Amino acid sequence: MNLRGTIPSQLGKLSFLLSLDLSSNNFYGHLPTELGQLHRLRIIQLSYNGLNGEIPTWLGNLHRVQRLEMKNNNFTGTIHQTLVNMSNLEILNLEFNQLSVQAPSSIVNISSLKAIDPIK
User: What are the helix and strand counts (H, E) for the chain?
Assistant: First the structure.
């Protein structure tokens, strides 16, 4: 789609949203905290952008998410323990970012998790 700019915070008002796919665009900046209000989300795909900052802790509050793919961005810092709260998570892909440590060891306690590619 070749969209550019920051991800609009107004997306957080789309409470009915089940899937958010903004992959392969030119988004940059931090993820807006308003996205943490999308409690019905099952799929988050934000790969191949220029997003940066830390992986937000509020992602752990999105308990229905089954797929979280944010590879090939510029995220930094660590993978927070709060991701363990994503009890329906099946696929986690955070590879090819600037993350400094491996995923928390407790992430393997997510019984639904089928595939993980956290860091390269």
Answer: 0, 10
Percentage, residues of the chain above pLDDT 70 = 93
pLDDT tens digit string along 18-47? 999 999 999 999 999 999 999 999 999 999
Give me the residues paired with residue 26 across strands. 4
Pairing of strands 26-29, 67-69: unpaired
Domains of the chain as residue ranges with CATH: 4-117 (3.80.10.10)
CA distances (Å), 63 to each of 48, 49, 91, 99, 101, in order? 24, 24, 13, 23, 24
In this structure, are residues 40 and 17 in contact, taking their beta carbons and an 8 Å threshold?
A: yes
Which residues, in sequence order, are CB contacts of 68 under 8 Å at separation 6+? 44, 59, 83, 86, 89, 91, 92, 93, 94
Question: How distant, in Å, are the alpha carbons of 1, 33, 49, 55 from that of 87?
Answer: 31, 20, 26, 18
